[in-house]
Amino acid sequence: MRLAALEGFSIKILEYQSVISAYVDEIIHIVLFTVTIFVNKYVLSSLKFTYPTVFQGWQTLVGVLILKFLTWKGKSKLVVTPLDKNGTISILPHVIFYVGSIVAGSKALSSLPIPVFISACNLAPASIFLLDSLPQPLCKLSSLTLLPAALALLASASVLFLCDNEFPDLGSSGDPNGGDSPYFWMLVHVVLLTAQSLHDRVADPRFSPMDLLFYANLFGVVILAPASLYLQEAFLALQFRHHRQIHFYIGCILSGVLGLLLRMRMATASSSVDSLPSLATSSKEKLSEENCSRRPKPVRGALAGLIASIVGFVVFPGVTPETGVLVAAAVSLIAALFIPPSDHSRDDASSQGAAESWWESDDKAKWPSKPKPGELRIV
C-alpha cells in the first residue's frame, strides 16, 4: 500500500512538472513571437527598409549559417538528411511556398497594422481545420467545434475586405510596395502559408521539419540573391541611409536570429510528442500519460498572436483602422483561440484514431515510415 501511494505521488509530481513546463514553454513562445514581429515591423515600417528580396534574403542567409553552425558544433553527431532526386521533387513545393510567403508577408507587414496582419493570418489555420473536417460524417461533428473556425475564417476575410475598401489608395500613394495593395500581398501570404501546411502532410517523410527549414532557407538564399539584383533592390539597399543606422543594423541582426529561433521552435513542436519519464510500473505509466493527454493545452500560436496584436496596436499605432475593422480583427483573434490545433503528422493522427484526410490516402503507402524525433536532426 505504501509503495502504491508513493508511485501515485510520483505520478502527480510528474503531471505537475509537465503542466508547468508546458506553460513556461508557452510564455517563451509568446515573448519570442512578439519580439520577432515587432523587430520586423520596426525595420520595415519605422525605418522604411522596404526591399523584401534583400531583407528576406538576409534572413534566410542568417538561417543557413546558424543551422550549419549548430550541426558543426552540436554535441551529438547530427546531419541534415541528404537530398536525392525523389526527395528534391517532393520538397520543392514546400521551399517555393516558404520563400513566396515570407516575401509576400514582408510586403504586407510593411504597410498593415500588426492586429490586421495577425488576424488575417488566422485564415490559414481556420481553413485547414475546416478542410480536415470535410471527410468526417456530419453526425460526428459538433457545431461548437466548427463555430470558432468558421468565425475566424469570416472575420479574417472581413478584415481584408473592409480594410481594402477603407484604404483603397494605400498601396499607390507613395507606398514602397510599388503601387500594389498590401492587402493583395497579405492574401498571397495567407494562400502560400495554407498551401505550405497542406503540402507538408504529403511531403517525403524522410525529411523532418528541421530538414525542411534548412533547405527552405538555403533555397531562399539561392533565389533571392539574384532576384535582388534583377529587381535592382540590392543597389537601392546600398543607397539606404537612415539617421538611426545603428538601430537599423541591430534590427536586421535581431530579425534574422529571432526569426530563425521562432521557426526552429515551431518546427520542433510540430515533430515532438509529449512523453513522461519511465516509471517502475508500466500500468501506472500508461495511466499518467492518459491523464496528461486529457489535460487542456494552451493554443500557442493563437494566444501569441492575440497578445502581440494588443501590444502592437499601442507600440505601432500607424494607420488606425475604423471600428468595424477592429471588431472583425478582435473576433478573428479570439475565435482562433478555440480552434483545435491541426496535426501535421500522419503517423500521430493515425495513432490517435483520427480520420484519414482526403489528401493523405494515396500517399501513405508510398513513403517509408516517418523518422522518430532525435534521428539525424538539426537542433
Overview of the structural elements:
The protein is an all-alpha fold and 379 residues long. It has one domain (24-270, 291-349). The protein is built from 14 helices and no strands. The chain has helices spanning 2-46, 52-73, 85-109, 114-121, 123-133, 143-166, 182-199, 209-230, 233-238, 245-271, 282-294, 300-315, 323-336, 346-351. Helix 2 (52-73) crosses helix 10 (245-271). The longest helix has 45 residues, at 2-46. It is globular, with a radius of gyration of 22 Å.
What is this structure's SSE topology?
Layout: H1 2-46, H2 52-73, H3 85-109, H4 114-121, H5 123-133, H6 143-166, H7 182-199, H8 209-230, H9 233-238, H10 245-271, H11 282-294, H12 300-315, H13 323-336, H14 346-351
Helix pairs in contact: 1-10, 1-11, 1-12, 2-3, 2-8, 2-10, 3-7, 3-8, 4-6, 4-12, 4-13, 5-6, 5-7, 6-13, 12-13
Strand content: under 5%
Order of helices and strands: HHHHHHHHHHHHHH
Number of helices: 14
* Average pLDDT taken over every residue: 76
Distance between the termini: 43 Å
Radius of gyration: 22 Å
Count of separate structural domains: 1
The biggest sheet amounts to: none
Proportion in helices: 55-70%
Uncertain regions: pLDDT < 50 for 5+ in a row?
168-179, 273-298, 344-379
> Structural class of the helix and strand makeup?
mainly alpha
| Count of strand segments | 0
